[in-house]
Amino acid sequence: MKNNNNIRFVQGNEACVEGAIYAGIEFFAGYPITPSTEIMEHLAYRLPQKGGKFIQMEDEIGSMGAIIGASLTGHKVMTATSGPGFSLKQEALGYACMAEIPCVIANVQRGGPSTGNPTHVSQGDVNQARWGTHGDHAIIALTASNHQDIFKITVEAFNMAETYRTPVVLLLDETIGHMREKLVIPETGEIPVVERLRTSVKKGVDYHPYLPREDGRLPMSDFGSEHRYNVTGLFHDMWGFPNSSPQVVNELLRHLVDKIENNVNSINMYKEYWMDDAEFILVSYGSSARSAIHMAKNRRARGIKIGVLELQTLWPFPADMVKEKCAGAKAIMVVEMNMGQIVTQVKSAVDNPDSVFLANRIDGELISPTDIKTVFRMIQGKGV
Amino acid sequence: MKNNNNIRFVQGNEACVEGAIYAGIEFFAGYPITPSTEIMEHLAYRLPQKGGKFIQMEDEIGSMGAIIGASLTGHKVMTATSGPGFSLKQEALGYACMAEIPCVIANVQRGGPSTGNPTHVSQGDVNQARWGTHGDHAIIALTASNHQDIFKITVEAFNMAETYRTPVVLLLDETIGHMREKLVIPETGEIPVVERLRTSVKKGVDYHPYLPREDGRLPMSDFGSEHRYNVTGLFHDMWGFPNSSPQVVNELLRHLVDKIENNVNSINMYKEYWMDDAEFILVSYGSSARSAIHMAKNRRARGIKIGVLELQTLWPFPADMVKEKCAGAKAIMVVEMNMGQIVTQVKSAVDNPDSVFLANRIDGELISPTDIKTVFRMIQGKGV
Amino acid sequence: MERLRLVFSGSGGQGVITAAIILAKAAVLFENKNAIQSQSYGAAARGGATRSDIIIDDSQIYFPKVIQPNVLVSLTQESYNKFAPIIRPGGLLLVDSKYVTIGKKVDAKHITLPMFDTIMEKIGKPIVFNICMLGALIGISGLIKPESILKVLKTSIPEDFMAMNKKALDLGLKMGKKEKY
Amino acid sequence: MERLRLVFSGSGGQGVITAAIILAKAAVLFENKNAIQSQSYGAAARGGATRSDIIIDDSQIYFPKVIQPNVLVSLTQESYNKFAPIIRPGGLLLVDSKYVTIGKKVDAKHITLPMFDTIMEKIGKPIVFNICMLGALIGISGLIKPESILKVLKTSIPEDFMAMNKKALDLGLKMGKKEKY
Amino acid sequence: MTEKPFNFKNYIRPRFFPHIWCPGCGHGIVLGSLLRAVHELGLNKNEIVITSGIGCSSRISGYVDFHSLHTIHGRALSFATGVKLSKPGLKAIVPMGDGDALAIGGNHFIHAARRNIDITAIVMNNRIYGMTGGQFSPLSGTGKKATTAPYSTIDRPFDVVELARSAGATFVARSTVFHANECKDLIKKGISHKGFSVIEILTQCPTYYGRKNKEGDAIQMMESYKTDTVKIGSKKLEKNPDLIQRGIFVENTDVPEYCEAYDEIIQAAMKGKA
Amino acid sequence: MTEKPFNFKNYIRPRFFPHIWCPGCGHGIVLGSLLRAVHELGLNKNEIVITSGIGCSSRISGYVDFHSLHTIHGRALSFATGVKLSKPGLKAIVPMGDGDALAIGGNHFIHAARRNIDITAIVMNNRIYGMTGGQFSPLSGTGKKATTAPYSTIDRPFDVVELARSAGATFVARSTVFHANECKDLIKKGISHKGFSVIEILTQCPTYYGRKNKEGDAIQMMESYKTDTVKIGSKKLEKNPDLIQRGIFVENTDVPEYCEAYDEIIQAAMKGKA
Amino acid sequence: MAKGKTVQHLIDKEWCKGCGICIHFCPKNVLEFDKNDKAEAIRPEDCIACKLCELRCPDLAIQIIEDGEGENEKQ
Amino acid sequence: MAKGKTVQHLIDKEWCKGCGICIHFCPKNVLEFDKNDKAEAIRPEDCIACKLCELRCPDLAIQIIEDGEGENEKQ
Ligand SMILES: Cc1ncc(C[n+]2csc(CCOP(=O)(O)OP(=O)(O)O)c2C)c(N)n1
Ligand SMILES: Cc1ncc(C[n+]2csc(CCOP(=O)(O)OP(=O)(O)O)c2C)c(N)n1
Ligand code: SF4
Ligand code: SF4
Ligand code: SF4
Ligand code: SF4
Ligand code: SF4
Ligand code: SF4
Ligand SMILES: [Mg+2]
Ligand SMILES: [Mg+2]
Fold first, then answer.
1. Assigned CATH class of A1-267
2. Is the complex ipTM higher than 0.95?
C-alpha cells in the first residue's frame, strides 16, 4: 500500500496543482476567477517552495502572455481560468499555437455564456476550446472525472505540450474542481514525465527553431542561450522570421494542424467500463462521467448490458476509436452538461448517427444518474 | 435605370458602411485593424454627418462594451474588426448574447491563427464566429460575395439584430473588403429596414424586459425612459435580475438558443446559380463564391451540369436547405478558404457525406477557378 | 459498510463545511475509506443556508452529490426548514437545541442536543461548536473513530488549540452516546 | 467588349493605385461598364513593387484577380522585371523610358514612352505622372473616353488642380495616339 | 437640497434586501452615500444609468432603482462610455471594485480619464478581491496577506488619485466609509462635475482583507479609517506623512467634456467640413 | 565604453536590410540609438531579449540580432514579464509604438510600472498608428487629422512621463530622434537601471502623421523636435511653457525590483514561512 | 441639535446583520445589541439625531425619524 | 575634433532611401544627393567626423570611419 504521506484528501483543483508540480511546473501566471481560483491559490503557495515562480497578473490576457514568455526561457508553464477568462485568453492562445509554445491552460468550466452561472457546473466550453481563437489551427484538450485522473491528465497535459510544442487545454469543471476526494500522489517515475526537448545544435552551427526533425519534433533553444532566433505570431519561415509567401503559409498551417490531427491516436486517452458486451453505451467525460458510471453500475446490477466509454481526450476528437468502440451498440447516449457539443462529434463518428442520443443537463446542477436513466427509459420506449 | 448619384465605385468595406447607414446605424465604436479598418475610417466621416456618433476606443474589448452600452440607450450600433480583434471581443460578445443586445459585429477575415497573414485573404474564422465565446449559445453569422450583396446583408444584419435581439456577425474577408467594384445604393424603402421594437407598456405598468411576447419577440425600453430595469450577463429572470435557480437557467439558455435555431429558415439567405439541373454542386460563400461562380459559368459553357449554391447565412447553418438542394447531386464541392469548416457542416447535412469534397486554399491567395477545376477533375477521376 | 450520505447544514460562521471536511478526511486518511465532500458555493454560501455533502463508503463513489441524506445535521432553523424534507426515511436528524425548534416531524430519528450551550458553558468559545457537533454525531452513530478526527485536527490546527478541540469533541461524544440510534 | 485585364505596377509614390482606381471608376460611373480594382496590401505595398489589378467588362465579373493581364503598365524596373513574364501573349506592355529598360522581350506589343520626362519638362510636377500614363494608355488603346477620366478627376481633386491634370492627360494621349496597337 | 426628506426606500429595489454583502461590509455604506447624493442633487431616477462590472462592489447596481447595467469584469467604463456618448443627457455613474477598476479594468480607467467623458467613477477600494475570496489587488500594497500571497505581497500599490490625475481625470477625490457624509458630498460634486470624475472610497472587507491581515472586524477597520486619514494638507501630515489624505485633489473645469466636444464634430460634419 | 568601436553590423540581422520602414521614418533612428546603447554597455547579445508587440515600431525586434520575441498587439510587456521573472539574468528590452504601449497596451504598461519589474520600455512615439495606415493614437493630441479623425481629433493625449511616473515607474525619461545621442544615453541609463524604466522617444511618421497634419517631410518634423523641445527645467520654458521637456524625469533606486523581491518570497517559502 | 429631541429609531431587524457599527460609533451610546445580536435603541432619549448610525449602517437597516420629519411620506 | 581629419564616408546606396536627413543636418554641408537621390559625400574634406549623419540615418546607411578606427574590424 501507498505511503500514508502520499494520500491526500483534496479538491480537484488541488489535484491539478499536484499533478502540475509532479510534471515539473516552474512558472504560473493567472488572474483569479471562480471556480478555478484554488489552482492559483495553491500554486502561489507551492511554487516558491520549489524555487518556481508565481505571478498574479493584471488580467487573463497578461497571464497568457507571461506564461508564453516564461516558456521561451525554458520553463514548464501553466495558467488557469474559467469561461470569461478563457474567452479573453483566446488571442494569445492562438499565438501559442502559431509560435508553437508548450504551455498548459486549465479551464475549470462554469455555466455560460457570459458571466452566466459562476458557481455552478457546466461543460459548455468544449467547442470553444477547439474553435475559440481565430483562424485554422488544432488544439489538444483533455479532461478527467476524478482526482486521481486529474492528477494524471495534468501530467499528460504537460507531457503533450512539450512533445507537440503546443498549448494544451485542461477542461475541468466546477463539480470536479471543487469537490474533495482521495488522491494518492504517485511515486516519482510512476508516471513518465516528458522533459523539454532542447536542441543539440552547437554554438555557431545554424539552429532552425521551426524546421521539424525527421520525427516531426521541434527541439527548442532557451532564450538566453547561444542560439538567437525570432518568435512571431505571423506566418514564418524555419528561422522564425515573418514570411507571407503562399508556400510558407500553406506548409506552416498544415504543419500546425497535422502535428496534432495526425497524432490523434497517441494523444487519445480514455477509459472503459463494462464495454466488452455492452449493447448500450454511455459516452461521457468530466464530472458527467461519474454519473454515467454510477448509472451504468446500477443498471448492470439489474442485468442490463450497458457500458461507459469515458473520454479523456476531447480534442483532437478520437473519431476512429469512438466509431470502433460503438460499432454494434443498440444505442449510444452521450452524457454531457451542455446543449450537445460532443454528441455532434459522436454522431459524425459512428456508423449510425440515428442511434446516438443526448442525455444532458444545462441548468447548473450536476447531471444525475436518474437524469440519465430517464433518457435511457425513453430510448427503450418505456416513457418516463 | 438608377440615378447616377446612386452608383458608386467603392471597396467592399465601404459598401458595408453604406449598408449600415441605410439600415440606420447611429453609433460605432472600434479599434483599427487590417483589413477592416476602412469600415471605421468611413464611418468616422459618415456618422457625424447624420448626427450619429463614432468613437475610436482603446481596444477591441472596449469597443464591444461601448456598442452594447449605446444599443441600450436605443441606438443601432456596430463595430468592425478582424481575427485578433474578434478573439478579443469574444467575452463581451457572449455578454451581448446573454443580455440579448442588438448589435452588429463585422469581422473582415484575414489569415490566422494569431497575427498570421494580416493582408491576405482567409475564411478561417467561420467556426470561431459560432463557438468563440464560452458557454452554450447561438449566433447569427452572414456573409456575401459582392458589394451589392454586402450592402444588402449589412442591412439584414441590422434587421436580424433587432428582430432577434442578438449580436449578428458579418463575416467578410480581405478580398471582398478591399477590392473595389460597383455599388448601386438602393432607394429608401427598396430594402425593408427593421426598426427597434420598443415596449408599448406605459409608465407605471410593469415592464418585463426579458419576458418574450407571444410571438417570441422581446420589446425593449431605452435607458433613460420610464422603465428602469436591470441588464446583466448572469442568468436572470424576466426582470433582468440575476437568478441561478435551475429552472431559470434552463429556460433562459434554451430561449437563447431556440430563438435563433428555431428560426433558421427565416434567417437563411442564399443564392443559386444554375442549380435546376445541376449534377455537380459547388457550395461556397464570400469571395470564394466568386471563383466558384466563375468556374461554374465556364464549365456550363462547356456543357457540364454544374451549379453553385452560395450561402449568405452561415450560422445558424441551414442544414435542411442544403440537404434539399444537394439531394441527387453526383458530387458536392465545398469551396472555401480554410482547412474545411463549412464542409463539415455540409457533410453532416447531406444524405451521402462521401459525395462531399473540399476545394480549398489556405495560403493567403484567393482561391481561383483553376484551383476548383483541379479538384473537379480529380473527383471526375481525370487527374490533374 | 453501507454507503453513508450526510448533509451538514447551518449558516456561514458555524464551521459546518470545516466539520464536513474533517469528517471526510478522517475517513479517507485514517480509516482507509473512500469519501467525498462537496459544498454549495457562491452567493448562497455567503448569506443564507450553507450546505455540505459527504459520502463515505468502502467502495468507489461516483455520483458525488447527496440527494437524500441518511444523516442530516442542521445548526440553524433556516437550514433545518430547508433540508429536513429531503432526509431519507429512517435516517437520522441531529439539530442544536439553541438554534433549532423541530417542526413537522419526518420519518427519521430526531435528536436535539444542547451542543452550542454546552460548548459555551464548558469552554466559552463558539469556534469549537462544529467539533462538538462531530463528537455528538460520532457518539450517536459510531460512524468513525474519534481518534481519527483528532489525527486530522493535529495536522491542521496549531498545537495550542488541540486541548480545546479535544474537549469539545469529548463533550459531543458524551452527549451523543446517550442517544440511542 | 472583350474582357480587359490590366495590371498597373510601379513603386509607392508613383500613384499607380490611384490611376487604377480612376480608370476603373471612370469605366463604371461614366461608361456603364463593370469594373473591379484590387491591389496588394501590406509590407510589399510600402517598399517593393506596387501592383494594382483592374478588370473591365460589359458583363458581370466574378473572379477579381488578374492572373495574366492583357495590359501591363510598369513604371519601375523592379516592377517590370517582376511582372513582364505574366503578360498575356499578344498583350500590351507600356513602360516609362526614364525608369525602365526593356530586357528579354515577351510576346506582346512593347511600348516605351518618355512619360515622366515629358511631364517634368512640360509641367514640372511629378504628381501628375500617373495621369499622363493614363492618357498614354487611352491614347494607345482607346479603352475608354478621356472625358470619363476628367469627370472622375472633377469629383476627386480640387478645382485648381484640374488644368494641370488635364494637361498631363492630354500629353499622354498625344504620345499614346502615335503608337499603333 | 430637495424639499422631500431622504428615504432610501425611494431609491432601492427592496426585493433584494437584506442585501447579499457580508455583515459589516463597507460597500453598503457607499450605497447609502450614493443614494443620499442622488437625493440631494434632486436627480430624476430615469436620468441615471448605473453601470458596474463584476465584484461584490459591482452588485450595487442591482440594488438601486435606476437604469442598471451589470456588465463584465473590468469593462464597466467602456459600456458606460457607450451609454453616455450615445445619450449625453443621461447621468452615468460607475461604481467599481479596486480590482475591477484597476486590475483588469485599468486601461479603460485611464482612457476614460484621458477623454474626460462625463462619467462618475466611484472606486470602492477594499484592497482585495472580495468576490473571488480574498486575492490581493493592485491596491493591496506590499507586505499584505492574501490567498494568492501566502508569503505576503511584493506588489506595490497604485495611488488611485495620482493615476487618475496623470491620466487626465478632471475631478479626483478620496474619502472613506467612516466619513460617510464626506463621501456623499464628494459623490455629489463628482456627479455634478462635467467631465470624468473619480471618487476613491476606502471601504472595509472584513471577511477577507480584515481577517487575512488581522485588521480586526468591520468596526476596527473603520476606526483605522479615522486614525489613518486626514483632510488634504492637514498639519498632522508634517508629523506623520504616511497618513492618507482625503478631499478633492483635482477639480478642473477648463477642459472640454468629450460628448460636448463631439457635438462640435457633428456641427462641423453637417456643414461639410472634413 | 567598450574598446571595440561600434559597428551596427555586429548587432543586426543583415538579411532584413534595407529594412521595411518608409524613407525618413524615425523608427530607424531609434534602432540605431538602441544598438549603440547596447554596444556601449558592452552587453552580450545572448543576454538580451527584445520583446515587441505589433506595429511599425514593433518590427524593430526582427532587425536586431538578440533573442527576439514579436508578440501580439499591446501585450509585449506581459510577455516580457514572463521572460524576465522566469529568468531574471536576462535583459528585457521592449520597444513599443504609442498605440501598442498606451492604447491597447495601456494596462500592461501601468502594471509593469507598478510592479517595478526590471524591463526597459522604449515608447516610440510618432503620435499615430503607422502600421494600420494613420489612425490617431492616445498620444496624437487634440486638433489633429487622422484617417479616423477626418474632422480632427477631440481626444486629449496622455503625458507618457506623468502616466509612467504615477503608475510607479522608477526611471522615466524623454528624448527625440533629432537628439539621437541623447536617446542612446537615456536608453543606456534605462537598461542599466534596476527596475521598470520608460524612455519616450518622439519619432516621426512622415508617411501618415506628417502628411495628414501638414507637418512636412521627415526633415521638417525633425526640425520641429529641435525647436519644440528643451532640456528639463530650461529657462526657455518661462517664455514658452508649451515646450516639451527632455531628459530624466524620474530616477528612483530605493524601490525593490520585482524579481529580487520575489527571490525573497522563495527564500521564505523554502524555509516554510507561509 | 439639542439633546432630548423626539427621535424615532426605525431598525429593520430583518435587514440588520449585527455588525455593531452603529452601536460602536454612536456618540451618545444610544444603541445596543438585542438578544438576537440585532441593533436596538435602548436609550432613545439620549439620541441627538446626528444620524451617524443611519449614514454608516452598511445594511440600510436604520432610519432616524425626527419629529415632524417624514410628513411628506405619509399619504 | 579637428577639421581636416581623414574620414571615410561609407554609404550603402542599397540601404539609403534618400530621406535627406543626413544631408540636411550635416553641420559642414559635406553630403548631397547623387543623381539617384542617394546620399553622397561630396565635400569629404570638410567633414569633422561628428557622426551626426550616422547617428540620425534612419536606414543605418552611413558609417563614418575615422583614421585608425575600425582596425579591429579588419581580419
Ligand atoms: C474576465 C473575468 N476575470 C475574472 C473574474 C472573476 N472576478 C470576479 S470579481 C473579481 C474581483 C473582485 O474584486 P474587486 O473588483 O476589488 O471587487 P470586490 O469584490 O472586492 O468588491 C474577479 C477577479 C471575472 N468575473 N471575469
Ligand atoms: C488585437 C489587435 N488589434 C489591432 C491590431 C492592428 N494594429 C496593428 S499595429 C496597430 C497600431 C500601430 O500603431 P503604434 O503602436 O503606434 O505603432 P506604429 O506603427 O505607429 O509604430 C494596430 C492598431 C492588431 N494587430 N491586433
Ligand atoms: S467578501 Fe468582502 S467585499 Fe465581499 S461582501 Fe463580504 S465583506 Fe464585502
Ligand atoms: S508608416 Fe510611419 S511609422 Fe510606419 S514605417 Fe512608414 S513612416 Fe514609419
Ligand atoms: S450598523 Fe446596521 S447592520 Fe450593523 S448592527 Fe447597526 S443596524 Fe445592524
Ligand atoms: S442618530 Fe446619532 S445619537 Fe442617535 S442613535 Fe444614531 S448615532 Fe446615536
Ligand atoms: S539619412 Fe540615410 S537614408 Fe536618409 S538620405 Fe542620408 S544616408 Fe540616405
Ligand atoms: S560626420 Fe558630421 S560633418 Fe561629417 S558628414 Fe556626417 S554629419 Fe557631416
Ligand atoms: Mg475589492
Ligand atoms: Mg505609432
1. alpha beta
2. yes
